[in-house]
Design brief:
This protein has about 350 residues and is an alpha+beta fold. The chain is built from eleven helices and 17 strands. Strand 14 and strand 15 form a beta hairpin. The longest helix has 14 residues. The chain is globular and about 60 Å long. It holds the Pfam family S-Me-THD_C.
């Protein structure tokens, strides 16, 4: 499978949907990925099993504020500098790149870097959706170290972080990103193809592409189509009647209220926001929580809506998608369950089916 100029836009759409309202606007990433593919060629998407078991995989993406990243012009050299830093640290060649987060802009930047480097991209990622912290990766659950974490601004400045643990790596990496102006490119959880086959969330690139291609073919009924494609369910269709945001501790927090219209008239859904949409409630009852994916789509064109772009009066459909299976385990819920985000509620599955 290839990512090329014919399907990169559909892939970006799928990444935005899997972001659960977060992950950063993929718009600038799409422009850069499309430009890189046009200049350097398409990107081959490969399964971990297609590589030598000892081949080195470099998970990579944006670290820091997605909002700041939208205002920055990326040079495209970040990937080359990360590869050089990883190879210098490990004394092994990087065989393939991997998105550490399939969502939003972090699904697109590794495509640009892979194209520029002439390297394949693994059909896998570390989150299967968007999460805000570096230890919220499937590789962490599998016992793989985030360190050494390599950071660059693409201008020749590189920081190597060797942390005692993955939570320490998160704290230190964030501090380093601040010295780069609030955002930078990073590579972490470097591992072999053998480890990636067991630790990473497989099939996430092809999943994002499949979702995006299906959605672009529709002319109406996008929430229902998304639910059908992902074994999810439509929670509500209606209008945003209330929204509240506040910023603190590195997160954008708040809530939104959607009043049902049409067949959903008389219903009211409350969405708890913390960069992503994390909890959906109706009449005080929790309908679905993180790590399941709560996606918001505009009813006008089916495009996903990020939490930062949600506004009063917007007509949206809210869809619950099953989260990756690794996060639905007891160990996974300790890392990305609702209590890890400060919500004193148990995990509630939005759908009964498995992620697929």
């Amino acid at each position: 499978m290839l990512l090329d100029t014919a399907n990169i836009e559909a892939f970006a759409l799928g990444c935005a949907i899997l972001g659960a309202g977060g992950g950063g606007d993929p718009g600038i990433g799409l422009v850069m990925a499309r430009h890189a593919i046009a200049e350097s060629g398409p990107v081959e998407i490969i399964d971990p099993d297609a590589l030598d078991p000892e081949a080195l995989i470099m998970p990579c993406g944006l670290i820091g504020s997605p909002t700041v990243a939208q205002e920055r012009v990326w040079s495209g050299e970040e990937g080359a500098q990360l590869v050089a830093a990883v190879e210098g640290s490990t004394h092994s060649p990087v065989s393939a790149l991997m998105c550490y987060e399939i969502a939003g802009v972090n699904g697109l930047l590794p495509v640009m870097w892979a194209s520029r480097q002439g390297k394949p991209l693994l059909d896998a990622d570390g989150m299967g959706r968007a999460f805000p912290e570096m230890q919220q990766q499937a590789m962490h659950i599998a016992g793989i170290a985030a360190s050494p974490a390599l950071l660059t601004d693409g201008r020749g400045n590189v920081i190597v972080v060797n942390a005692a643990g993955n939570r320490d790596a998160e704290r230190l990496v964030r501090s380093c990103a601040a010295t780069f102006g609030g955002t930078c490119a990073g590579a972490l959880y470097t591992m072999t193809a053998r480890s990636a086959a067991k630790a990473a969330i497989r099939g996430s690139v092809s999943k994002a592409l499949r979702i995006g291609q299906m959605m672009t073919k529709r002319r109406s009924g996008w929430p229902e189509a998304l639910a059908d494609e992902t074994a999810g369910r439509v929670l509500i269709e209606g209008r945003v009647t209330e929204i509240e945001r506040r910023t603190g501790a590195g997160f954008s927090r708040g809530h939104a209220v959607v009043d049902g219209t049409g067949a959903c008239s008389g219903r009211r859904l409350r969405l708890e926001l913390q960069n992503e949409v994390l909890v959906a409630l109706e009449d005080g009852e929790v309908l679905v929580t993180v790590p399941d994916i709560i996606a918001m789509l505009t009813l006008a064109d089916g495009h996903p809506v990020g939490t930062e772009r949600l506004h009063h009066g917007q007509r949206v459909g809210v869809v619950a998608l099953p989260g990756p299976d690794v996060w639905r385990t007891e160990e996974g819920l300790q890392v990305v369950g609702p209590r890890s985000f400060g919500y004193d509620v148990d995990y509630v599955r939005g759908v009964t089916g498995a992620d697929h």
